[in-house]
Write a structure and sequence with these properties.
The chain has one domain. Helix content is 22%, strand content 33%. It is built from three helices and six strands. Helix 2 packs antiparallel against helix 3. The longest helix is centred in the last third of the chain and has 15 residues. The two termini are 25 Å apart.
């Protein structure tokens, strides 16, 4: 069975919106996991997996955008309470660990400084590159982000 993978876009005041990958727990809608990098251009970013995250508890405005379908065997649910860690537990998370988060920016006030949005784009590119057997999913990622399709 396929799992839907989403882009979560969180309001961030006057700063660029925060982007994360949202994967709801199988059979659920509001509880799942976020794959993202957290930090800022002044200090750099680090990878974090938020497991059993409940979207209903966020105080920031957000939008959820359908990104792609994934095979069940590529995504693992982790039952339990909310937790944060950096240890990969499935194929999606393993791919995230090889995408380097943005480091410190020489000019953190520069609007072009690398941030979580750049990391998400790099992560999606890595997913595309690693998924050579699923052309429809590759096209879905590419179309959603208006990226160059690697066909």
């Amino acid at each position: 069975m396929a799992r839907t993978i989403y882009l979560a876009v969180f309001a961030n005041g006057s700063k660029p919106a925060h982007w994360a990958i949202w994967i709801p727990t199988s059979g659920g809608e509001f509880v799942g996991k976020l794959l993202h990098v957290t930090g800022n251009p002044a200090t750099g970013f680090f990878l974090e997996f938020k497991r059993n995250y409940d979207l209903r508890t966020t105080t920031r405005g957000y939008q959820i955008v359908t990104l792609a379908q994934a095979r069940d065997q590529d995504v693992t649910d982790t039952p339990g309470a909310l937790s944060k860690d950096t240890t990969a537990r499935d194929r999606f998370e393993s791919t995230a660990t090889v995408v380097r988060p943005p480091g410190r920016s020489a000019n953190s006030f520069n609007p072009a400084a690398l941030n979580c949005q750049n990391w998400i784009l790099d992560f999606v590119e890595k997913l595309i590159a690693r998924d050579v057997n699923n052309q429809s999913r590759r096209r879905s990622y590419s179309n959603q982000f208006n990226l160059r399709c690697l066909d």
